[in-house]
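Design job #97: recover the sequence.
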């Protein structure tokens, strides 16, 4: 009898631990696609073309992406970097559609390698990084 009580107690603890783990996870079916960089957005607030090199005189660089299967209140983070140095993050809260961030250079940044990483703020999201060059 004691063996059965021990087994039942272990199963009960296992159920509670599993429930706590699932509540702590932040998973989603939301996904990102078509991440583009540009200097001008179209009337739908999206980059029509995709660029990987920009002149140093470029005042603003935009990053747009399609967000699908996202409920209202989904958070997407854009992190802009020069090499490994973070230049700042922008959090966008939205639902499915287009998400956009911009990097304002005012034409006064040093030439080099830059990147932007776009990530849905969930545990199962894979970040997308786009590298670009300012000449």
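Job complete. Output follows.
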């Amino acid at each position: 009898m004691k063996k059965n009580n021990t087994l039942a107690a272990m199963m009960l603890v296992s159920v509670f631990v599993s429930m706590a783990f699932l509540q702590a996870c932040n998973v989603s079916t939301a996904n990102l696609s078509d991440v583009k960089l540009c200097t001008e957005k179209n009337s739908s607030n999206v980059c029509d073309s995709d660029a990987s090199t920009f002149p140093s005189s470029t005042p603003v660089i935009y990053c747009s992406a399609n967000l699908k299967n996202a409920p209202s209140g989904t958070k997407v983070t854009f992190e802009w970097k020069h090499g490994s140095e973070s230049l700042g993050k922008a959090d966008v809260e939205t639902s499915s559609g287009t998400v956009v961030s911009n990097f304002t250079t005012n034409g006064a940044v040093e030439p080099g390698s830059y990147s932007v990483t776009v990530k849905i703020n969930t545990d199962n999201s894979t970040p997308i990084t786009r590298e670009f060059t300012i000449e």
